[in-house]
Amino acid sequence: VKGNGKNNFSVFNESIEHQSFERRILENALRKGIKERQFYLEYQPKLNICTNEVIGMEALVRWKHPDLGTIPPMKFIPLAESTGLIVPLGEWVLRESCRQTKEWQDKGYGPLSVSVNISVRQLEEPNFIEQVHKILKETGLDPKWLEFEVTESIFADLKNTVSILQEVRKLGIQISVDDFGTGYSSLSYIKHLPIDTLKVDQSFVKDIHVNQESQAIVLAVLNLAKTIGLNVIAEGIELEEHVSRLSERGLLFGQGYYYSKPLRKEAFEEFVNNNAVV
Ligand code: C2E
Ligand code: CA
Ligand code: CA
Ligand code: CA
To answer: Which residues form the EAL domain (predicted)?
Structure first.
């Protein structure tokens, strides 16, 4: 226990209590928010960076709190994960993503594929695969248009990662490794995993036009992917220079503010309409 002197000790204790008090308030608000459907999705376009054709979108959750306004995911996803509330929230995100994608396909927006972020906590649920299967059936989305984004940490955190990812793939869903390059997964590991795509983390894209190490890392990821037959997509593309550096190295797909920030339904529709392939 920490404590050089009684006062220090009690101050330390108080701040911990204070923290968990705030945490409980936020947790209750989150619980209520899920029940009262205070969430919505934004969609960030994914493009073929050579043709500028929209190939799909990443679904990103937003919390519109009645008093506090819009709360960004970094403020509540970690809490949702540690409390397990990510399970019902993530289920809603997945259902809504599938429903919306199917609607867009039926309306003739083209063969859009949707990427959904999935937390380890969700994959650990014993009935996860069953739930996913049910959502696909309910929404009628062909699973080949669905992709799960999982972070590298699942390879360390989840005991039966491989078998669960195999089950996911058996359903016909694609798997992408998010924030690739920021974790510690050994590269030899990658080839044994049931994955389809590596998503180069935005930290490597950010300074690719000025930093040789970032250039080298992106090139290494592209070579690795080519050798073992994986797709690569880059996130966080903000500048024309990012596009040229990436495309001259053979990267095909990307997303980022250069093309579009995440958009609400109507704005996404407009974006797709204005970026139709000629
Ligand atoms: P992520 O999966 O790495 O998502 C990419 C984040 O980068 C998004 O932030 C996106 O808005 C932002 N971004 C996109 N383009 C650019 C760019 O050009 N430059 C910069 N600087 N940033 C860009 P967002 O929407 O705030 O989401 C943050 C994180 O929250 C996500 O990171 C993801 O880990 C998590 N998250 C969001 N939605 C969900 C969800 O439905 N489920 C789960 N489990 N996690 C989610
Ligand atoms: Ca993601
Ligand atoms: Ca990412
Ligand atoms: Ca991230």
So the answer is: 23-276
